[in-house]
Amino acid sequence: MVSPAQFNQSILKWFDQHGRKNLPWQLDKSPYRVWVSEIMLQQTQVSTVIGYYNRFMSRFPTLAELANADEDEVLRHWAGLGYYARARNLHKTAKLILNSYNGEFPNTHSEIESLPGIGRSTAGAILSLSLNQRAPILDGNVKRVLARYHGIEGWTGHTSTAKELWHWAEVYTPATRFSDYTQAMMDLGATLCTRSKPNCPQCPINSTCRAYIENKTKILPTPKPKKTLPVKHRWLLHIENNDQEIFLEKRPPSGIWGSLWSLPEAPFELDDASIIHHCREHLSLECRVNSHEESFKHTFSHYHLVLHPVKLKYLSRLPCISEPSESTWLKGKHEYGLPAPIEIYLQNIQ
């Protein structure tokens, strides 16, 4: 192994020649712009994020504009990125900073990490990338680089493995050029030290990388223990009125697709008569079943969801039996935040 100084200087020298320096969030840097990008980049690749980021920042160029926006509009600009709790936390945090910090993004690690949706690594990225403060990070790319370099076995989500990786992240973070080093480690993981088919011959630290030397790049980092995902089936209620408008309801803030607008669902064990009764009891709508459409599947991190669309004809509205959910009728172009699979389904049937 080389010294920490030799390690980070090799990384920085590579970055100066090959690192990414023109990503949208690298231009006109600010804690706000970097924060939005870091939240979007969680669980999502750079190539996917760029378009969403540009549209999001065009609509919400400042923290104050994000904080003062309606949640529906925030979710609409997020729709398609998935993991919608990220968007709700983004909106919540913007409001908190506006009210508790006079709209100024906090500049200490403890304050930033205490904000909704921001963990240790994200806080470090915001500080180092936007304010050039020394703050180690350990995102997925950095975990992969360090696990391979040191030949660390064990799933990176395990406490003991993560602790060892954080140790090395701290050791290698240099005394200067914090922003460049943080970006360099992200870039190295994203462009060379990739999950599959890493480009080891071009890596600036390959001569001392244990995984490369011992031919273990295919097995490190240790994959997350696999488990069989359960499959859940639900009726997707496609209710249309005489004007060919489609009934939507707003989902509760917790759970999948929280606070997004979607077609109502019903338990899959219901028959047609029970589906009609469900519409009366839960939606206060009198309907009749017209047809059953082809099912489609969407996979979440913890289960597969198979949705079985059933088309219903709206007949009349009934008196509310219980507290009604927020609802609307949709026709043509709209400004509602819909889950991507529902948006695709509606586009296909239209």
Question: What can you tell me about this protein's structure?
Answer:
The chain is an alpha+beta fold. It has two domains: 4-213, Endonuclease III, domain 1 (Orthogonal Bundle); 231-349, Nucleoside Triphosphate Pyrophosphohydrolase (Alpha-Beta Complex). The protein is built from 14 helices and eight strands. Strand 6 and strand 7 (304-317) form a beta hairpin. Helix 9 packs across helix 10 (159-172). It is elongated.
Please, what is the CATH homologous superfamily of the largest domain? Hypothetical protein, domain 2
Helix content: 40-55%
CATH architecture tag of the largest domain: Orthogonal Bundle
CATH C-level class of the largest domain: Mainly Alpha
Please state the structural category: alpha+beta
Ordered list of secondary-structure elements with their pairings:
Layout: H1 4-18, H2 31-41, H3 46-59, H4 63-67, H5 71-78, H6 85-100, H7 109-113, H8 120-131, H9 140-150, H10 159-172, H11 178-191, H12 210-213, E1 231-240, E2 246-250, E3 261-262, E4 265-267, H13 272-283, E5 285-292, E6 296-299, E7 304-317, E8 327-330, H14 340-349
Parallel strand pairs: 1-7
Antiparallel strand pairs: 1-4, 2-3, 2-8, 5-7, 6-7
Helix pairs in contact: 1-11, 2-3, 2-8, 8-11, 9-10, 9-11
